[in-house]
Write a structure and sequence with these properties.
The complex is a heterotrimer. Chain A is mostly helical. Chain A folds into two domains: about 70 residues; about 60 residues, no CATH class. Chain A has five helices and no strands. The longest helix of chain A is centred in the middle third of the chain and has 32 residues. Chain B is mostly helical. Chain B folds into two domains: about 70 residues; about 60 residues. Chain C has one domain: lambda repressor-like DNA-binding domains (434 Repressor (Amino-terminal Domain), Orthogonal Bundle), CATH 1.10.260. In chain C, about 60% of the residues lie in helices and about 5% in strands. In chain C, strands 1-2 form a two-stranded antiparallel sheet. The chains are: A mainly alpha, B mainly alpha, C mainly alpha. Chains in contact: A-B, B-C. Chains B and C meet through helix 3 of B and helix 3 of C.
Chain lengths: ~130, ~130, ~60
């Protein structure tokens, strides 16, 4: 994704998305440590558990903000099409996998991986969408 | 959206959608009926398990086709914006629930619920998006 | 984007629904373009210009 950045708005967006991913990993480690050593209960356990989800929610909100801010309508269109492709992909895969889980005893896919997989499919879609405009 | 049956893209979508849902119902009933009774294994188990999921994938493809076929760019834009919001909300809920599952052990969310959850959020955001343009 | 669609429509005594039908879009789309809340694509803008027998610049004004 770094080789094709054209505008400062886009560069800011890509950097912040990677930062949010890094924070998520960091907060996951922190939460795991908190649960290991402090054994929180009640409200504090819920707070500690959702801590890693907060950078993700921030990233999702910021994606919306970026889509509104980006003046280059072609770049915006590329991202929108990639996100739609990612949506279709992840919905198809999670539905198929869960039926395989229930009926054919496939290994369980943790819910937390749905978000990274969504971006994986969005990235794959970006390749196809970009190729259309060569 | 007024006059849905005058719009060719909308009509095609409705027919294809209803056909896919009909297949889904048949395949799901077949799988739920056959598994406890006949205990299929191996390849047959995978085929029976995957058929309902393939019908859902067909629904996703049908929606994608509608998006490319709809000539009214305004309706298309509003629907795409609603779907992006819906996907954002779905990802947020899945990630939060996923981390709660991992750390606190709340009951797991079945992955096949993500698809209807997405559409529930789309329905939730539709009035908001439409009122933006009134 | 500001435009003169309402005036042009009134000159021909067309309702939004009439214009929508001629453009093959929905009435909400016409309303969104007219109120400046949605900018039409180039093909649709050309369609509008052809329909009103004028140029795109005569219908839409870019206030930059």
């Amino acid at each position: 994704m770094f080789c094709s950045i054209k505008s400062p708005t886009e560069r800011r967006y890509v950097i912040r998305m990677w930062v949010s991913a890094g924070l998520c990993v960091l907060f996951s480690v922190v939460a795991a440590l908190v649960f290991r050593f402090y054994h929180p209960h009640g409200v504090f356990s819920y707070l500690a558990a959702v801590l890693p989800a907060l950078p993700i929610i921030g990233a999702l909100v910021y994606t919306g903000v970026y889509l509104a801010e980006e003046k280059d309508e072609f770049q915006r269109n590329l991202l929108v099409q990639s996100l739609l492709g990612g949506t279709g992909g992840i919905l198809a895969v999670t539905t198929t996998w869960s039926y395989l889980e229930d009926f054919a005893h496939a290994p369980h896919l943790d819910l937390v991986w749905v978000y990274p997989l969504f971006w994986l499919f969005a990235g794959i879609s970006y390749g196809f969408v970009r190729a259309r405009y060569r | 959206m007024n006059q849905p049956f005058k719009n060719l893209a909308m009509r095609r979508y409705l027919y294809r959608f209803l056909a896919s849902i009909a297949f889904y119902t048949v395949f799901l009933v077949a799988a739920v009926w056959a598994f406890p009774r006949y205990h299929p294994t191996g390849f047959l188990a995978y085929v029976l398990a995957i058929l309902p999921a393939l019908a859902i994938v067909a629904v996703i493809v049908v929606v994608g086709l509608y998006l490319t076929e709809e000539k009214d760019e305004f309706q298309r834009t509003v629907l795409i914006q609603t779907m992006l919001c819906g996907m954002g909300a779905t990802m947020a809920v899945c990630t939060g629930w996923g981390f709660l599952e991992l750390f606190i052990g709340i009951p797991a969310l079945k992955l096949y619920l993500i698809f209807p959850m997405f559409w529930a959020f789309v329905g939730f955001f539709t009035p908001m998006m439409q009122s933006r343009y009134r | 984007m500001k435009n003169r669609l309402r005036v042009l429509r009134a000159e021909r005594d067309w309702s939004q629904a009439d214009l929508a039908q001629r453009l093959e879009v929905s009435r909400q789309s016409v309303n969104a373009i007219e109120t400046g809340k949605f900018d039409p694509s180039l093909p649709l803008a050309f369609k509008l210009a052809r329909l009103f027998e004028t140029t795109i610049e005569a219908i839409f004004s870019d206030e930059n």
